[in-house]
Every structure is written in C-alpha cells, then in structure tokens.
Design goal:
Belongs to the protein kinase superfamily. The chain has about 375 residues and is an alpha+beta fold. The protein folds into 2 domains: about 240 residues, Orthogonal Bundle (Transferase(Phosphotransferase), domain 1), CATH 1.10.510; about 100 residues, Phosphorylase Kinase, domain 1 (2-Layer Sandwich). It is about 40% helix and about 10% strand. It is built from 10 helices and 10 strands. The strands form 3 sheets. It has a 6-stranded mixed beta sheet with strand order 1-5-6-4-3-2. Strands 7-10 form a two-stranded antiparallel sheet. Strand 5 and strand 6 form a beta hairpin.
Length: about 375
C-alpha cells in the first residue's frame, strides 16, 4: 500500500543520511608543551582566563601563538590546589594529580572521535591541553537561566544531542574504556553547538584486572555499583539514562526543592504509568507519533535496577536514530493520501526537521 511505500521511502532516505559519516581511526596526536608557554598563554593563569573549576582542578582559556600570524585558542587544565604543608591538602592535590595523569593516559590512548573532547597534549604531566569548547555545558544549557542566545533547545535538538552522546558512549565502550562520570556538566558544546563528552579523570580500562573503587557523581551514580567487581559498561549506561531524562524533561538529576528529589525516582513511575505528558520539558512535541514514549521507555531501561537488562550503547544509538527518522505513523500519514501528495509531505517534513534542529546561525546535519 501507499502507506508502507511512504514509510520505506522516508526510512531509506534517512538511513542513507545516517550512514554517511566520517570514520576516525588514527590516534590523537599528543604534543609536549613547554610549561612557560602555557603560563604565557593564560597570562600567568589570570583569574580573567578562568573558565571552569571543580574537584578536578581549574580550567583556563589559553591563546597559543603557533607563529607570528597564527594562534589557537585552547583549554588548559591544571590541579587547583597550591602546595601546602597541610596533610589533607597534600592528599587532595595528590588525588587531583592522579586524575589528571589518568585523563592524559586515557585520552592519549584513544583514536580521534567527533564525539569526544580532543586531547592536544600536556606539559610535564602537570597541565593538560584540550580543544576549547566555547558554548558551555549541557547542564548550563538546560538549567541555567540566561537572556543571552541561544534559546532553550527545541525538542528535536534535544534528541539530536542525546544521539551524539550515545555515540560517544558507544565509541568509548568499543575502545574498552568506561567513563564512570557521565553527567550534563561533562558534556560540552563546540563553536557549532556539537556536544562532546569530556572529563576523563575517573575513566577506567575495562580490561584492567584491578578495578578502581566506585566513584562518580550523586544523582548519576549507578546504585548497583557498590563494589569494584560491579564495574561494567552498565554503569555508564545508567548515568547516560539520567542524562537522557534530564534532556527530555529539563529537570535536574537531583533537585532538593522537589519531591522526589531524584529524577529517576520521579520519572520512572510516570513512564510505567504512561503519564509521559507530565515529564516533557522545553516544549516536547509529537512531531512523530509514538516517538516520545519510545524515547522515555529507552531511558527507563537505561536506569533499570536490574543492570543486566539495560541496553548497550549501540542499541541506544540505533533506537534514537529511529526516533529521529521514522517510520511515520498512521496519524501523520493517512492511508487515503495519494502517493504524489505523500512525497510532497515527506519533503516538507524533512525541511521542517532540519529547520527545527537548526540553532540560530548554525547549519544542521542529520547524521
């Protein structure tokens, strides 16, 4: 029937678009930077150059002069604590240095990927240099009020972000790497508003015989991850599921002003009861009938209390691609519609999809 033919046309078109991507296989080129040049690049680590800080350390914006005419903006990460006689401070500094060295070792071992923050090099293991991400974090985009552009992401843009992060997790797991700290604060946007996964201080190699002690961020940490032996890819999948619920609902992972405070405890019962209208934030819409429920069911599987029932990152990626691209449902494409009218409607829909996914001043690509 025309209905199935129309579905075949749309699905085939977007399958081609999805599969048309670049493959990056070479290892990232690591450079040994001169420490003094990095000091100069940050104006002596001036507070005016500080763009981020936390338990991991400080992150500064740096301007590296490659020659007399060219320069490059980078991000430079350094431990936050100064040398101190305090034993607790020395311990904290030692832990920060371990995280920094671990991050350098992990990133330098990975092939290049468009979904993971690019590692540029280091300086005597004290400083790490990565690509500069000028548009902040996913947490800021979803939860921090601002009058400056861009506006809150559209519903379809949110799905696109979820897809890119799923691809990042899939890439890491294919390389035998567990991130262990996936959260909206560790998802950064480049100049084209493409999201990338960052902060590998807690990352671990799946093949290592000695597993690290459980670690992560409250609200994102898998409750099943109670001992080193429980470390697996399912730990990252749980954290990703929390981020997916954040993206869909616009609610924080932990919000003590609400009850329940946990986004998982709040959202999963609503999903199980089919009350999906109470979950959507930021104008969630029914562009494709059934897409909303399908996406939420995937999120619920990711945060399942049964770790073995959680999907793989590859399965998540495939499911979100289907959420973005079809097939169309009976409601959106009636059976009585003629073939030619259906083709016209499909073209209009693809145009609207691209316009919806496009942010001000940016060009959209549906991968």
């Amino acid at each position: 029937s025309h209905y199935y033919l129309h579905n075949f046309i749309l699905s085939s078109y977007f399958y081609t678009q999805t599969c048309f991507c670049f493959c990056f296989s070479s290892l990232q080129l690591m450079k040994e930077f001169d420490y003094e040049k990095l000091v100069t690049a940050t104006d002596g680590f001036s507070p005016s150059r500080l763009i981020g800080k936390g338990s991991h350390g400080f992150v500064y914006e740096g301007l590296l002069h490659e020659d007399d005419k060219r320069h490059r903006v980078v991000a430079i990460k350094t431990p936050s604590l100064s040398p101190s006689s305090s034993s607790s401070s020395l311990f904290e500094k030692s832990e920060q240095m371990k995280k920094l060295e671990n991050e350098i070792n992990v990133l330098s071992s990975l092939p290049c990927s468009p979904h993971v923050l690019s590692f540029l090099g280091h300086a005597e293991k004290r400083l790490m240099v990565v690509e500069f991400m000028p548009n902040g974090t996913l947490h800021q985009l979803l939860h921090v009020s601002t009058t400056a552009p861009p506006p809150p992401p559209t519903w379809l843009k949110r799905i696109e972000i979820a897809l890119q992060i799923a691809r990042a997790v899939r890439f890491l797991h294919e390389q035998g790497i567990l991130h262990r700290d996936i959260k909206s604060d560790n998802i950064l946007f480049d100049s084209n508003w493409e999201p990338k996964l960052a902060d590998f201080g807690l990352a671990a190699h799946l093949a290592d015989e000695k597993r690290p002690a459980p670690a992560g961020t409250i609200g994102y940490l898998d409750p099943c991850y109670t001992c080193p032996e429980n470390l697996s890819t399912k730990v990252d999948i749980y954290s990703y599921g929390v981020v997916l619920l954040e993206i869909v609902s616009g609610r924080k992972a932990i919000d003590v002003t609400r009850s329940p405070a946990s986004i998982v405890d709040w959202a999963v019962p609503l999903i199980n009861e089919g009350k999906i209208g109470e979950i959507f934030g930021g104008g969630g819409s029914g562009v494709f009938v059934g897409t909303n429920l399908r996406l939420l069911r995937m999120a619920a599987r990711c945060v399942s209390s049964d770790a073995e029932s959680r999907p793989s990152a590859g399965e998540i990626t495939a499911e979100i691609v289907l959420c973005l691209t079809g097939p169309l449902t009976l409601k959106s494409l009636p059976l009585w519609m003629s073939f030619f009218r259906g083709v016209v409607k499909l073209k209009r829909r693809r145009k609207r999809l691209r316009e919806t996914l496009t942010w001000p001043g940016q060009t959209c690509q549906v991968r």
